[in-house]
Every structure is written in C-alpha cells, then in structure tokens.
Design a protein that fits this description.
- By secondary structure, the chain is α/β, with parallel strands linked by helices.
- It has one domain: 3-Layer(aba) Sandwich (Rossmann fold).
- Helix content is about 30%, strand content about 20%.
- The protein is built from seven helices and eight strands, in the order E-H-E-E-H-E-H-H-E-H-E-H-E-E-H.
- The chain has an eight-stranded mixed beta sheet with strand order 3-2-4-5-1-6-7-8, with helices on both faces.
- Strand 7 and strand 8 form a beta hairpin.
- The chain is globular, with a radius of gyration of 16 Å.
C-alpha cells in the first residue's frame, strides 16, 4: 500500500478501521502516524494528531532526516472537509510516496476527490455505498467487484488492491476493543 482510501457512510466503521491500520503500522514498522483529524479524536500514543491543516502539511512535507525522522503513515480524516477537491493537494496523491510516507484518506464520498486523486489510490476499503459511488470506484480501481458495495451491511467493507479483485471483510469490533483496552 502506497495510497489507500477508506470510504463509506457515517457509522460504517471508517475511522475505527483507520485507527486499527494506524496501530498495526506502528506495531509492524515502529513508524508513527501523522493524522489530520478535525475532530481531534484519540489515535494512540504512536500518532501525532492535529486539526491545523497548515501545520499538518508542513510536518508531512518536511523531508525525513536520516536517523531523526522516519517516513510516516499520513492519515487525512474527513476528506470531505479537508481535501474537498482542492487541486493544490493533488501532489499528496502523486508525490508523497517519494518521501516514503504511506497515505490513508478517509471520507464519506470519493467524489470529494478529484479523478486524478482517486486514480492514485492503490488500496481501497469501501464500506456500503450507493450504486453510483460503487460504480465510480469500480471504474477508478478497474475492478467490477466494487459494485457489490451497495449490498454491504454495517461494518462490512470491500478490500481491494489495484490489479486484484476485492474481497469482503468485516470489522471485528469485539477483537478491536480487546486490543485498545
């Protein structure tokens, strides 16, 4: 995964999944998460969280210095409000990997990203979506299996990587609560 998207309606499990991916990234690589979260939710001690967009992007674009700063998992929550088709943020999707950062964008609706942004996403976690939204993601990921997103239940999502068909998964909330306790 270089650039991932997590999309779906409220209460589907998007932020819960993003927090778990952040935690797993820390456990596996000992690299922190940089999180832009306008709600300032708790993401764990491994994450640096801010709601200040200017400060966030300044930290993200600062070159990792060998021995001082490692590449990070960059998480942008509420893409509807934070990215919202802002053309100046296209470089987040096209150039961030050159700093060896990984990107996760979380939002309700992928149409809040420009097409060029959506097409840079190589890993998609798609929760229940309207037929039109599912069709858009099936097109962007060139995988018709994403059309099944309209039939998902709460906490179910389709996980897919570019060039591979998506598979249905479900958040195990009981397991996640044990981990965070």
């Amino acid at each position: 995964m270089e650039s991932a998207g997590i999309f779906g309606p409220k209460l589907s499990g998007k932020t819960t999944l993003a927090k778990e991916l952040s935690r797993q990234y820390w456990v596996r690589s000992h690299r922190r998460s940089l999180v832009l979260d306008i709600n300032l939710e708790g993401w764990g001690s491994h994450a640096w969280v801010t709601d200040d967009e200017d400060k966030f992007w300044s930290v993200v674009w600062r070159e990792p210095v060998v021995g001082k700063a490692k590449p990070s998992l960059v998480i942008v929550e509420e893409a509807t409000e934070t990215i919202n088709r802002d053309k100046t943020l296209t470089r987040v999707f096209t150039r961030l990997r050159h700093l060896e950062h990984k990107l996760i964008v979380v939002g309700h609706d992928g149409t809040n990203l420009l097409r060029i942004m959506r097409e840079q996403i190589d890993t998609l976690y798609l929760f229940r979506s309207s037929p039109k939204a599912a069709e858009m993601w099936a097109d962007s990921m060139t995988q018709t299996g994403f059309l099944e997103a309209e039939n998902l239940e709460q906490y179910e999502f389709l996980y897919g990587e570019r060039f591979r068909p998506p598979v249905k998964r479900k958040l195990d909330l009981a397991k996640l609560h044990k981990i965070s306790a």
